[in-house]
Amino acid sequence: MSVATQTQLRWHEIADYLSGDSVRPLFLHGDSAHVLKFFPSSVIDFCMTSPPYWGHRQYSEEGIGLESDWRNYVEHLCAITAEVKRVLKPEGSFWLNIGDSYQSKNLVGIPWRVAIEMTDRQGWILRNSVIWHKVKGGPDNASDKLRNVYEHVFHFVKQTRYYYNVDAIRSTPQKARVENGSVISATGVSGVRYKRQIELSTVLNDNQKKAAFSALEDILNDVRMGRLSDFRMIIKGQQRTTHSDSARVSGRAKEIAERGFYFLKYDPNGSKPKDVWDIMPEDTQGRGGHYAPYPEDLCKIPILATCPKDGIVLDPFCGTGTTMAVAFHLERKSIGIDLAPDYIQDAKARCHLLL
């Protein structure tokens, strides 16, 4: 088969999948830097991947991660992130899980070197740096440094306005209650202490006290009606101003300087996840010859928050198909690319059990 014919077949395979309705994952064998060039621009809603880490392991095939110099690794990886940016829709998201490496006992700082290269030279916007705490992480036999139990998961976007469904990832909220006619928030705030602090304040003037009492009653009524599950009141001279006392850099500091108080309101739909995730590493025993599959739980928050229900997921280093398996469970289409044919076969076999 000629190169031109192979090119036509691959292009049609990708185009047919992008325009089809099936959520069955599509797996493509090849070098991501090459395969991604067959994709049209701005067709992918979401990308998440964990590329081979520099100098860590010998994977099934020669490829990225085996460079003699970490600078070449950053260059090669960023050539792929540039293609990811091209194929990603303007409102899309890219989540990158990447670990660090040592060279001559020096921690190289590869995750941040890659992130800075992407933001400074490729124009990505970095929205979050998540710390993945690998609960019960592997042993470390070094006697002259601490044991490493975390990795970075970076969230990149192409523009300042992008798809984000925060309600899809909120925790189940606690409920407010009413006792003896008084409303009590989810964490036990009744307003009695705040009313006493306002009444006895020597910092607030009469107008500020009147406004504070009125605003507190409005907040308590929101709790009573279910529009708010919890809150905190910051009163001048009583509680510490959050973040900064400078009205020049903090809107809350400006508000407390002018009004004498402000409120911290908790969403009634529940709280957002924090940027530290406690997730067990994947059990490699069930992943054949792949030494570093990431856990399914690592993909769930990113996909739910930043990939629409009718969106298309991409993983350019799909390994044994974790991203694709989670995408399928969450009813999203997905495309996985890997250089190693045995990983592709493992991924197909794994996802075939889901179909």
Keywords:
two-stranded antiparallel sheet; Rossmann fold; elongated; alpha/beta; 355 residues; 33% helix; 8-stranded mixed β-sheet; 2 domains; 14 strands; single chain
Plain-language structure description:
By secondary structure, the protein is α/β, with parallel strands linked by helices. It has two domains: 247 residues, Rossmann fold; 90 residues, no CATH class. Helices cover 33% and strands 21% of the residues. The strands form four sheets. An eight-stranded mixed β-sheet has the order 1-14-13-2-3-7-6-12, sandwiched between helices. The chain has a two-stranded antiparallel ribbon with strand order 4-5. A hairpin with a 2-residue loop joins strand 4 and strand 5. Helix 3 crosses helix 4, helix 5 packs antiparallel against helix 6 and helix 8 packs across helix 9. The longest helix has 19 residues. It starts with a helix and ends with a helix. About 2% of the residues have low confidence.
